[in-house]
Description:
13 helices, five-stranded mixed beta sheet, Actin, Chain A, domain 4
Amino acid sequence: xxxxxxxxxxxxxxxxxxxxxxxxxxxxxxxxxxxxxxxxxxxxxxxxxxxxxxxxxxxxxxxxxxxxxxxxxxxxxxxxxxxxxxxxxxxxxxxxxxxxxxxxxxxxxxxxxxxxxxxxxxxxxxxxxxxxxxxxxxxxxxxxxxxxxxxxxxxxxxxxxxxxxxxxxxxxxxxxxxxxxxxxxxxxxxxxxxxxxxxxxxxxxxxxxxxxxxxxxxxxxxxxxxxxxxxxxxxxxxxxxxxxxxxxxxxxxxxxxxxxxxxxxxxxxxxxxxxxxxxxxxxxxxxxxxxxxxxxxxxxxxxxxxxxxxxxxxxxxxxxxxxxxxxxxxxxxxxxxxxxxxxxxxxxxxxx
Length: 352
């Protein structure tokens, strides 16, 4: 089987995809990560017809969020790390696969897709079907914590405990990995999107100010933190007054945003503690020495590493270099060396 995979790879343009709720990253074998765009598609409202002849995808569609007339809808076809709209996800994948191959409709690559570990068999099949209909000759599904661990260079093929926390847009994946397998994994549908919603809810509750998801995300990036900052920050925020219906500006503080995020962050830290509790003693000892690696966009939240160190009573925690790229790089590493990582893929082949 691996020989046939290598032969197919010789005649194809292999693609690794981190199909994220917020952003999609594409890795092309031999070139590295060549594309990173929002997972957004603009369609005519009430249909799945993509605007601009199928080209209103990614950055083009993201600019339309909250700024389009009622007959146009800019949507994100993935929610909580899984497909919420099958046809639009197919359009998203088709656009990205063709874009990295100069719009060629004849390219049929092998495609490796990162997926949350906690999704159902039906959700897995939806990803495979979408990729196949988008032009993939063969589809591999790679669980995101495994891909992230490979992408950040952890020695997952050795008999030692490796712990990775991948905080994406739709899910947080916490896993302990050893000898090419996940010893224990906790998948939590609380991640970047949930943090954005918490900020928007806080502003509505405290200030009667309504903001969109793009503004909430900007606030999270500018002010978000898991622990008190040495110098607290402020930011002016524009939104719509919920009572009067008019535009209004307020100034908010990083302390407020930390309060808004506290419950969600607590659940993420709780998943880390639960995973450690279910880890065999020998592997737990490895983790205590080797530490925990944070990946995904959520890893960039100020002070999250310090909070986890505190709550785990001193286990070292480090943020991966370029954490946003970890899963995409992992899918690419696997496609570059199918001999080494083929066994890790065996259970997730589209053909069985």
